Amino acid sequence: MRPIFAAGLALIAAACSEAPVETPAPAEAPAPVVLGGVDLNAPLRALGTEPFWGVDISPDGLVYSAVDSEGMRADNPGPTIQGTTAVFASATEDGTALVVTLIATECSDGMSDRIYPLTARVELGGQTLNGCAADFAFLNGDPRP
Q: Residue 22 — φ and ψ, nearest 5°?
């Protein structure tokens, strides 16, 4: 009886030690969400003139700034895409609605010869601002692919 018992233990030990080890799958990068040739997962800036204003859009949040403002921050819920329009709808830390709408149409800022890939509309509280938008690579002078 002893040899059978020992053989059984050896089989159990072998089965336990040969269990496959699962390795976690590598984290996948978010799939690109592209509007007008612009990856909306990349850091973006919407900007306008008269008055000068800007909204930086990153995964960390939406940050509004203007010449006459200290700046306001809101969470970035990600865009809602409908056709050729992307909408980032949030609220600033003090509860003011901040909605950034990006439209896949070329845009001129009216002050330079630069043509931006996106048109932007920003609603901050009761104020509506119109301007243009692009990713930081474009704004830094990198050519479009």
A: -90, 130
- Report yes or no on 93 lying in a domain: yes
Number of domains in the chain: 1
Q: Which two tokens stand for residue 26?
A: 């590598």
User: In degrees rounded to 5, what are phi and psi of residue 68?
Assistant: -100, 20
For residue 11, the model assigns a pLDDT of 46
To the question of pTM greater than 0.90 for the whole model, the response is: no
pLDDT in tens, 77-98: 999 999 999 999 999 999 999 9
- Asked, for residue 21, whether it belongs to a domain, the answer is no
Residues 54-77 as b/e (b if ≥16 CB within 10 A, e otherwise) read: bbbbeeebbbbebeeeeebbbebe
Calculate the dihedral angle through the C-alpha atoms of 74, 80, 85, 89, rounding to the nearest 10 degrees.
-30
